[in-house]
Predict the structure.
Amino acid sequence: MALLEVEDLRVSFGETRAVDGVDFQVDEGQVVGLVGESGCGKSVTSLAIMGLLPRRAASVAGAARYDGVDLFSLPRGEMRRLRGPDLAMVFQDPLSSLNPVVQIGRQITEVLERHRGMRGEAARKEAVHLLDRVGIPDPARRLGEYPHQLSGGMRQRVLIAISVACAPRLLIADEPTTALDVTIQAQILELLKDLVDSEGTALLMITHDLGVVAGLCDEVNVLYSGRVVESAPARDLFARPTHPYTVGLLNSIPRLDLPIHEPLRPIRGSIADVIGWNDGCAFAPRCDRVAEECVAGEPPLIGAAHMHRCVRAEEVA
Ligand SMILES: Nc1ncnc2c1ncn2[C@@H]1O[C@H](COP(=O)(O)OP(=O)(O)OP(=O)(O)O)[C@@H](O)[C@H]1O
Ligand SMILES: [Mg+2]
């Protein structure tokens, strides 16, 4: 049994379907990537797992089991107890998840006190150490500052430090390195790797950066319009992408090994506002290989270790 099992997750906001039947698993000590372009449902998936979607606006169906426990039927109080020591999340928007009127040192030591039983000087030292590990210069001085005194990238790193301080069994990181320059990004990825290797943390990594995926993930799920369109071990996905959308994502990355005048090949069009899986493949309007059979019916997710949702996958590969 995997530590986290997400099964047929569906989330809608009124008439709008944001997530439309997503399945994946994360094992202890494993890094699983969730990739896809803006609006495909990555954040909504993670917020649903954490029980943090607004209850009135969002209707959530399917299951998310943590250590065998169905999170969606857990009473609120028990869910709150799990957050921190069991489930932690680095949010995409760092300013709204830090408390603006509490010094950042206090925000970190609070977690260390509550979840790791540290007190006083020991907690303060650990907070300095954590800020140092996420690459914040002069960490001892920064402890006394408020979130608004930090740059966006620094706030992101403080959030990562807080998540690491919890030493959670499952960490969901939603675009944790998007706002950071590459040297800091490398340092953060190293830190996350460390956490996974030394603590056996299960890491769900949400990103649209395929470089991050290549450097960190064991398994990857490619999301398109609220559904998984390809799922495979990271190596296999890069070596043999089988869904035209994945191929498109890989082709859109600038490459140093190609001649400079070689044009990038972006995927034409953009993700639709409405989930389009009812009349065949939702990617069909943007796909160069579209055929009659693509819009004849919903393409199923097929395969075992390397799964895809494309009726023409053999030709693509
Ligand atoms: N609170 C909400 N109310 C209504 N619709 C929402 C809400 N939150 C998200 N959505 C919709 O759900 C869809 C998926 O959004 P989500 O935030 O999961 O995208 P994402 O994959 O995380 O994109 P990005 O890469 O830009 O962060 C979008 O169409 C979005 O407009
Ligand atoms: Mg998002």
